[in-house]
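Changelog-adjacent note: as of this version, every example in the card shows the full chain rather than a window. The one below runs 336 residues end to end.
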Amino acid sequence: MIELEGVPELIDPVMVAAFEGWNDAGDAASTAVAHLDKEWKGEVFAALDAEDYYDFQVNRPTVFMDAGVRKITWPTTRLSVVRVGGEKPRDLVLVRGIEPSMRWRSFCNELLGFAHELGVELVVILGALLGDTPHTRPVPISGTTSDAGLARRMDLEETKYEGPTGIVGVLQEACTHAGVPAVSLWAAVPHYVSQPPNPKATLALLNRLEDLLDLRIPLGELPEDARAWQVGVDQLAAEDSEVAEYVQTLEEARDTAELPEASGEAIAREFERYLRRRDGGGPPSPGGHATAEGTEGGSYLREGPGTGRTRPPKPSRPDPDEPDGADGADDESSDD
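Full-length structure tokens:
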């Protein structure tokens, strides 16, 4: 039995989780949860025992100095709670950590134990994968669930994916078997510029989370960072004719495939988001790792506090002998 001390009774709590590693291309998903924690000043109330789930030769602890005393930070998964104000206040339970090295079923059961004790009504798991998507277009976000009823109610896809999976897929299925409604939101990150961070993908995940939960998320500097990220990649692509040609090919394929999807529903969602931001006093926002092959990909804009922006590495052109990754984004996104 998990006993929680110091955690008040929560209002309509939703658990939002993300894990660094295979499910986190461009660090887009873990950065999204970190953003929520920072903007709403989350308070950590629990941390899983690192020795139960992590191989320290894979995810090594770090040493730091605190007032002249050496201390160690162990890789783990932490839970914090934030209160979202407004006309309909609610609480979010934020789960942020690293994909565990072992004992995944016990890991998921422990998280579900916290969800049960806190009265969590919905679990939303964020992920990001590498795909054949151009950086110049809106980031594709897919929402999936294993619950057919939930898929209909929340306008999501019912997952049909078969193949390798990560902790996002395992946790979603654990929720389903435990009777806890669960949703996965996946961002597709351009594979030719996969280095973290990717603020454009993080922003897209947060916008989709807003729509899903009907709340307003303060975005801070993310819109500006997303624009700067795209400008930086535009400049690099312009310096290499082969990369520019490849990006144009992706743009044409994307535009042709999505032409029928300029639907009334998509326009309505964007307008609702605009109204939510206007009413909240904020401006409207602009609009390795998982792939279908189960492979992992190889930072810029902000390398760290006080270092400013640096140029990103040159985008790499994909190997023509490798399988087409466009289907990869669609297939893997239906994993969770």
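Structural remarks: Residues 281-287, 292-334 have pLDDT under 50 and may be disordered.
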